[in-house]
Amino acid sequence: MAITSKPLPAARVLEPPLARATTARGNPSQPPGWVGWAFLAPNLLGVLAFTLVPLLSVVGLSLTSWNLVSGLSGIEFVGLQNFVDLFVDPGFWNATLRTVLYAGISVPLTVVGGLGLALALNRDVPGRAVLRVIFFLPYIVTVVAIGMVWLMLLNPSAGVVNQLLGAFGLQDLPGWFASSHWALPALIIIAIWSGVGYASMIYLSALTDAPTQLYEAAQVDGAGAWTRFRTITWPSLVPTTVFLLVTLFIGASQGFGLIALITAGGPGDATTVVSYYMYQNGFQFYRFGYAAAIGMATFAGVLALTVLTWRAQRGRTLHD
Amino acid sequence: MAGQTTLSRRAVLGATAGAGLATLLSGCGGSPGPRSSALQVWGGVPGASGPDELVAGFEEQHPGEKVAYTRFVNDDRGNLKLDTALQGGVDIDVYFTYNSTAMALRAGSGVALDLTDRVRADPALAPYLDTQAPRATVVDGQMVALATAREPYFVLVNEALREQAGVDLPRAWDVDDFHEMARALTRPGVHGAYSVPDTARVSLGANYWYAPDGGSNFGDPAFLEWLQLGRTMIDEGSAYPWTEVLARQLAAYQQNPFLQGEFALWPTAPFNLRYLNEPEDYPHDFRVAAAPVPRTARGDWNAGQFNNFIMINPRSTKLDLAWEFVRYWVTDGARAMLGGGKIPALDVLPDEEVLAGVLKEDPERFFDVDSFRHAMFTSEPKLMTDTNLTAVPEISLAVEQQRDLCWIGERTPAEAVSTIDELADAAIRRNQRKA
């Protein structure tokens, strides 16, 4: 008798799989239902304590004025005032614009670079395995090491990059982290450099799943390389691309480590993206309610963009 | 199913959420945790730089009492850790506050005991009652923090570079003299000065960010003059290029280019002397002299402050012992802190003993001792304590950001100071609205 042929228990009672199987077999020696929950409890508690409760706390906090030091008794309910303030806060909108620029440039370039690299490494080139490791390395290097190395490379007067640019005869070299015009582009370059290897690895794994019979059929039909890429490779990579766009954009919108380490949001506020603006308000100004409101606004923005991206890819994959 | 225990989804999730929330709230609720028998003291100075010796002295003077000193790093994260601990009910009896930002938060948030009556009752602590040159933080009439140290600023001078340039060591000078000397010391590979002293502070003294009506004071020409002087000196090369300061993150490591002879004049405070008398860790081949902070046409404030404020947690279960410890720190225990560059806030030690303690062993090898005696004591530096702490974190950030943009040449001093004025006014208004 197949277990699944048995009717499920009443809808309002949730029993873990173990308990359901026990009921189905009717074996009284099987452990009772709470045992399954006991196994789930550590993970469930972890998710609640470190994800759900903090998430709900942020929602509540965004409706308050609180400086932490005054304790719970110092929490003052202010309704939607933080969101009203946010709406007319030029600092927030400037930070949002910088975040859009930072993510909007770095993420597509990372994805395109990763795709190109994956296509190159998917061929039978000598030392392919070593090359894959080399390109992936920046992704696993700690942000502190990345920051320190790039700080030296991009030093305006003594850095290797400007010396190379100077050797090519370029005048008026970039000030990089010492210039409000170049600091954000410098961060974008670093983000692309450290993310391309990761994107290429994801693409490489997707390429191994590409349907070989379609390529064979296309070759028989006389399709060229570009046609094969356009009609077979790319459609099969669309879900991977969407995954990369969404996850990298979420990562970029939360980008904090490099900025805190290298520029602290400067010069001026040239690299103060939303996540750093939230940090400043929370942990430098101790405006935790306002920082929570910034977090909620960011969450809404990223969610909207994720949904849009997801919808945009529908009907464009190989399997649709 | 009869007799078998089943749990509804709602019951399980509800119970778990309740447990999670209870855990969270108990962590933030400030209910006292387990109490130690030892007095718990949190400070930012490493134990080996004085606090360990001070604690040993206190325990010797108070047989049977124990003190546990915990060091926190005095940066944003370290202060957040202390604030969280204070709110979370961690066993802390006495703690330190080192900057105006943290003081602004703690002084009015119920985590500082009112010390007024105890100070009034003790004649030895009478200087803390002085309102002309305050050494204590007073909020709403309550004295909540006592300065344990004074930090007179001075201008350190690379003696080798000064002698090469053939200029005299100043004993009394103004900002124009400073500018002229920096120019005289400038030559290929060497900038005259690291930066300019905070001349607005020198002109205006305590609470210089606030106008008499409580609003922003950045419309005062002193701020424009400060930014303008910095920009002029950077442009002409007599001050260190600010682009290098940003690119090499030198604000936190000013000692490195000074030790390497990249600039000759260094406006700073005694805590940086530690880099100048430890040749193994910080090798250099020149002696260092000190000049007083140059005065301006409008004032002669030193720009240094009474600092290192000691406070008592009102939740302490050992309030009397905590007060005994505070009193010991600012009086008999002050000697132990000299090695860490901490000059006592009260006049409890002879100047010569303080000088010897701050300059440490073999001072003549590293320093022009007489110049330090003059800069730190006989020139009688005018120190201060800020009493208006409105929107200090926001204003500090605005000043730093606009100073950077001005000194890297992207904004004019007038534009920079105008922006600071706007941002400061907005921050002050927002804080007043909250209050």
TrEMBL record, chain A:
List residues traversing the bilayer. Answer: 34-56, 68-88, 100-121, 133-153, 182-204, 237-265, 285-310
Where would I find the ABC transmembrane type-1 domain in this sequence? 96-309
Report membrane topology.
Multi-pass membrane protein
A Pfam family of the record is BPD_transp_1
Q: Which GO terms describe its biological process?
A: transmembrane transport
Report the SUPFAM superfamilies cross-referenced here.
Answer: MetI-like (SSF161098)
Could you confirm whether the keyword Cell membrane appears in this record? yes
Just give the chief location class: membrane
Location within or outside the cell: Cell membrane
> What keywords would UniProt list here?
Cell membrane, Membrane, Transmembrane, Transmembrane helix, Transport
A single Gene Ontology CC annotation of this entry is: plasma membrane
InterPro entries xrefs: ABC_transporter_permease, MetI-like, MetI-like_sf
Similarity section? Belongs to the binding-protein-dependent transport system permease family.
Annotated protein name in UniProt? ABC transporter permease subunit
Q: State the species of origin.
A: Auraticoccus cholistanensis
Lineage, top ranks = Bacteria, Bacillati, Actinomycetota, Actinomycetes, Propionibacteriales
Automatic annotation (TrEMBL), chain B:
- Source taxon at top rank: Bacteria
Q: List the GO cellular component terms.
A: cell envelope
Q: Sorted alphabetically, which keywords does the UniProt record give?
A: Signal, Transport
A Pfam family matched in the record: SBP_bac_1
Q: Which Gene3D superfamilies match?
A: Periplasmic binding protein-like II
Give the UniProt subcellular location, in the record's own words.
Answer: Cell envelope
Q: Please report which protein family the annotation says this sequence is part of.
A: Belongs to the bacterial solute-binding protein 1 family.
Protein name in UniProt: Extracellular solute-binding protein
What is the species listed in this Swiss-Prot or TrEMBL entry?
A: Auraticoccus cholistanensis
